[in-house]
Amino acid sequence: MATITHLGVHGRGLPARITSEEEALSVAAKATEIFAVISPDAVGEWLARSGLLAISVPAELGGIDVSNVVLAEIVSAFARASAEAATALTAHFAALELLRGGGTEDQRRAVFDRARQGQRFALARLPTDLQVQLTDVTVEIGKAEEAAALPPDWRIICLQSLQDSPVAMMLARTGTVREDVERSPLGAFIGKTSAPHVDAMLALQQDALLLSTALSRLLTAATVLGRCESELSALISPDQGADDVVDRAERAGLLAVRIETLRGIAHRCGALFDRAQVSPTTQAIEEACRVSTILDVVIRETGLPCPSGEDRAALRAVGNSVLFGGR
């Protein structure tokens, strides 16, 4: 059996405390400069100390609960610096969204306290042969998949309980056993066999997984947006040579179209998501999820090659305007 983990003081030390959306955006804006001088292995530690992992924590639990529009802007900023960091943040914020209304007040406070301590969360990908057995006090797991460039501190596994309501199970990352995680029944280390205490299971609201998936789609689109902005900046760079100007213009035009499309729909999706969190009516939730699905379609469909004929000329015109100010 794996070690039952306990809530305690996090070994990394207290991260910075961010107190406003403006401060969060400022910290995110520094990511490109910082990531250029630190090793990839240090990115996870920088995220833990930055204070950004707590910005979606509800206000009643000590966070600033930034708007989802701002959350998407922050993920886009990170995507311009590191696709891995943006992906890790997307997984983290989607997992916290899942747990926003889950469990008891004490369980929620324990979860969000960990986020405030700089610990990262993510939903676990489950292998098809995962064996789960429900008992009165434990959930025994055959194995769980490890597939992240920046492994989170905590994985969340979604299950259906015997009452057919969704349940989230908290599991700490497999690895070195830290002294601070040996004293509380919040979760267990993933191994060949793990047995988290019943307190590691949080009952979820019926729409929790739906909203978590919708937020993940929004932030994935924000990541694509940031990568497009980064590529467009490279095309505009004075270091670019004069060769293949036509191809550059067409590519710049396509990127400009993708950026404006993603930015507009992502902003609308974020605003709808804010509304659904404040007033979680069926209509508000359905509308936010619908627009997040549209975003998912957009990031797939706009990856197609440049069109031909007049549409191709239109892209060149947009690209020339971006690259050369309309010349």
Automatic annotation (TrEMBL):
SUPFAM superfamilies: Acyl-CoA dehydrogenase NM domain-like. One of its GO terms (molecular function) is flavin adenine dinucleotide binding. It comes from the Bacteria. Residues 40-115 form the Acyl-CoA dehydrogenase/oxidase N-terminal domain. This is Acyl-CoA dehydrogenase-like protein. It comes from Ciceribacter lividus. The lineage of its organism: Bacteria, Pseudomonadati, Pseudomonadota, Alphaproteobacteria, Hyphomicrobiales.
